[in-house]
Design brief:
By secondary structure, this protein is of the alpha+beta class. It has 10 helices and 6 strands.
């Protein structure tokens, strides 16, 4: 059992980058990849805290295994992450009182480099947040709570936003407590789950245990090449969301351009997954330069700034 810390702190925004092409294919796949009605019915009744369902329903494990066996590889990761986020959200917040869950993954490094950032790829929430967290997505690094959890391979829970903390964290609107969970596959790191609640002290030990189980289950969606040894991860500081946002505006356009260029070069359709990875790597490089420039400006003497 992980030893959970209850230090008070804050957490950054949860967000999502929708898959620009793969998602449309997934939503047309047979119902075994998407409908959670069977397991959701188990969680509809409003339960007092002492009756909280402390295990993941066995029906859901069966559904994940069915997904693994029957879903084509091109659709598998998207289908599995959607199933898992839907189920975890319904399990932890059946009364829709305010919870958000986001999946962040390691940004694959270029040859000879280490993992320098994480990026958010999917997220669901209950009010006051929108159900699909599509308005924002983010690169995260050493400045973030999930970055700290990934580097140390350790889950962290935060009771309330008012206290002092030694953890790196950034509060956003509505958040009162938060928790992060690294996702490991055979002791190698794939990414993590970021969970925020509108309630203080939401993350009790039973809820932490359930979320840790979902993080373990999330490892099923990753291939070996998506996971990295601890010594191959060296997170950099990524810029604030306000500085990142303008660079995401043309993501889909850049993806389609790279896809067309690569397909023409090879003489056959390129791999969507490979093209998305290249665009993520290009965007990461740009944002690291933005972050470096912002740090220079923060440390520059006022007299030098005024002299410009």
């Amino acid at each position: 059992m992980v030893e959970y810390k209850s230090n008070r702190a804050s957490l950054f925004v949860v967000s999502i980058l929708q898959d620009p092409l793969g998602q449309g294919e997934y939503y047309g796949w047979p119902s075994r990849c998407g409908n959670l009605a069977g397991t959701a019915e188990l969680l509809q009744e409003r339960l007092p805290e002492e009756r909280f369902i402390e295990t993941i329903p066995s029906e859901f494990y069966a559904r994940i295994l069915s997904n693994l066996a029957l879903t084509p590889r091109a659709l598998y990761r998207q289908a599995t992450q959607d199933l898992l986020l839907q189920q975890a959200l319904q399990h932890l917040d059946p009364n829709r009182e305010g919870l958000s869950i986001t999946l962040a993954v390691c940004t694959p490094p270029r040859a000879g480099q280490k993992v320098r950032s994480l990026h958010e790829v999917a997220g669901l929430a209950t009010p006051p947040w929108p159900y699909h967290l599509t308005d924002k997505f983010l690169f995260l690094g050493d400045e973030s709570l999930i970055g700290y959890a990934v580097v140390h391979a350790h889950s962290i829970t935060i009771d309330d936003r008012e206290g002092m903390t030694f953890f790196p964290a950034h509060w956003t609107e509505h958040e009162r407590s938060a928790a992060v969970f690294p996702i490991l596959r055979q002791a190698r790191i794939a990414g993590g789950l970021i969970v925020s609640s509108v309630q203080e002290a939401f993350f009790t030990l039973p809820r932490m245990a359930i979320l840790e189980a979902y993080a373990h289950l999330a490892a099923c969606m990753f291939e070996a090449e998506d996971c990295f040894a601890a010594e191959d991860i060296e997170l950099n500081i990524m810029p604030a969301y306000t500085l990142q946002r303008p660079y995401f505006a043309g993501f889909t356009r850049r993806f389609l351009r790279k896809y067309a260029e690569k397909s023409a070069e090879d003489g056959h359709p390129a791999s969507f997954a490979q093209m998305r990875q290249l665009v993520w790597q290009d965007l990461e490089e740009v944002l690291l330069q933005v972050s470096a420039q912002a740090q220079v400006e923060r440390t520059q003497p006022i007299s030098e700034k005024e002299g410009k």
